[in-house]
Amino acid sequence: MRDVLPELMSIWRAGDTAGVGTVVRTLRSAPRPPGASMVVAPDGSVSGSVSGGCVEGAVYELATEVMASGAPRLERYGISDGDAFAVGLTCGGIIDIFIESISKATFPELGEVDEDVDAQRPVAIATVIAHPDPQRVGRRLVIRPEAAAGTLGTARADSAVTDDARGLLALGRSEVLEYGADGQRRGEGMEVFVSSFAPRPRMLVFGAIDFAAAVARQGSFLGYRVTVCDARSVFATAARFPTADEVVVDWPHRYLAAEAEAGNIDERTVICVLTHDPKFDVPVLEVALRLDVAYVGAMGSRRTHEDRMLRLRAAGLTDAELNRLASPIGLDLGARTPEETAVSIAADIIARRWGGGGRPLAEVPGRIHHDVQVEGELKDHLTRY
What we know:
By secondary structure, the chain is α/β, with parallel strands linked by helices. The chain folds into three domains: 1-107, no CATH class; 110-198, no CATH class; 202-354, Rossmann fold, CATH 3.40.50. It has helices at residues 5-13, 56-69, 110-118, 155-171, 210-221, 252-261, 278-288, 302-314, 319-322, 338-354, 376-383; strands at residues 18-27, 37-40, 46-48, 73-78, 94-102, 123-130, 140-143, 148-150, 175-180, 189-197, 202-206, 225-230, 246-249, 270-273, 295-298, 325-326. It has a six-stranded parallel β-sheet, sandwiched between helices. Strands 3-2-1-5-4 form a five-stranded antiparallel β-sheet. Strand 9 (175-180) and strand 10 form a beta hairpin. The longest helix has 17 residues, at 155-171. The two termini are 30 Å apart.
């Protein structure tokens, strides 16, 4: 919903009702991830997408009906072998879409959620999308790390969902959780979609060079909160990096260590070291490779890489820590310009995030889209009861 929140808020603030369709579950090669939404305004205009075009028309019609009736719907769309002209996904995937009406009457807390998202405060919305009692469908909880508002119908259900949703929120994940009708850990009947609005993941770019400007643009495009840091004030200026969220003048290793100490680095953070100067990159890599982050890459030739590895080993880094380093940074795309190099770096980050191999899809058999891997702690948390 994050991508359509501004349009939804305009309708909500005006006191009107919107029809909202949200992808809540995907199977096989689905085109949009859980949380992707489409908003139908009272005047019939549309913003957002749930399938990239395959089922938009059908969802539009349902959203219009739900706006009028107020009764939410959970619909499944997939390829139909029996009817080639049925509404479905040409990619062969399956998606579940929850369609509901949203207004100040149905979702009074939405204004506060919007404030949280705008301020980069973590917040999750847990919505009942299936239940034996139709009156429970559409009920929601707004969950923050320290509090929760609303109810799913019973205190037991609220407690169970709040606990599990906070685990998802900490990981920035949106997905369906299943419970017994009253929130029992073992059981079935109630399905709850948790939409997590975690702060944007961070991209830290060290080295205020022309390549850094291109990488910052790619990072912003991919949804990262981008920081460019360099110790040289003449190069580290906002004018040179207009797409960065912040430009910091500081020694890279000192800045990174301070951010980690302050709790501003998490497992989604990506770090790109573009200085290719040992007095800058070796100290910052000493810090970066010991942090629990998603990606650490460093620019430089193969000769620079070999020299850097020797220096890092001499500084005491282990083989396991050094194996986390993507160096030379980026995928082999034959990139030459700063913009092409930034694309290769972005491609490397994406491939490592989703488990891609970086090969042409035409040469790879099987499914195009990779499943999200549930982190061990969350999986244990959700199955230990």
